Amino acid sequence: KPAVVLCVSGPGVLHAIGGMANAQVNC
User: Fold this and answer.
1) C-alpha distance from residue 24 to each of 14, 19, 27 (Å)
2) In the Cβ-directed half-sphere of 25, how many Cα atoms lie within 13 Å?
3) 1-27 burial, b for 16+ CB within 10 Å, e for fewer?
4) What pLDDT is recorded for position 22?
5) From CA 21, how far away is CA 15, in angstroms rounded?
6) What is the pTM of this model?
7) Helical packing angle, 2-9 and 13-26, nearest 10°
8) Following DSSP, what letter does each residue of 1-27 receive, concatenated?
9) pLDDT, tens digit, for every residue of 1-27?
């Protein structure tokens, strides 16, 4: 979860969505 927050505040929303999708697949 914290990683997703950092992603949102960093690269942007599109990257955040991709990160969340990857996280769900990995988990």
Assistant:
1) 16, 9, 5
2) 6
3) eeeeeebeeeeeeeebeebeeeeeeee
4) 72
5) 10
6) 0.30
7) 160
8) -HHHHHHHHTT-HHHHHHHHHHHHHH-
9) 555 555 455 556 666 677 777 777 665
